[in-house]
Amino acid sequence: MKSATNWRIAQQLESTFQKSPQEQQSLKTKLSHLWQTLLAYLTPSLEPRVWLSLDVTGRPQWNAYDPVTGKSTHLASEDEMRIWLEKRHYSS
Fold it and tell me: Which of 46, 55, 48, 47 is nearest to 74 (CA)?
């Protein structure tokens, strides 16, 4: 059984390591982005890989990786992504 002092210390440690919902979303977003980037690098294709994620504020963010050039981009809107893809297509 925990003494009162041990209980307070345990509570303080738990509160220190608990993350707010915003911090949890940020971590989830970062892990998702890392996973998608890893998949993009490991996928043997010359086609660009495009995916949608959320930034730390919860707004959508379009991401892409071009295996031909090895470049990636992070854009705020779908229209910006379309422009990026068109430029990539016509520059080839």
Answer: 55
> Which 3 state secondary structure label does DSSP give 7?
helix
Report yes or no: 72 and 65 within 8 Å, Cβ to Cβ. yes
Taking alpha carbons only, the member of 75, 61, 73 closest to residue 26 is: 61
How much is the pTM?
A: 0.53
Contacts of 76 (CB under 8 A, 6+ apart): 59, 61, 62
pLDDT string in tens for the chain (92-residue length): 445 555 665 665 565 556 566 666 678 878 887 887 777 677 677 888 898 988 888 888 999 988 888 888 998 899 999 999 999 888 86
CB 30 within 8 A of CB 54: no
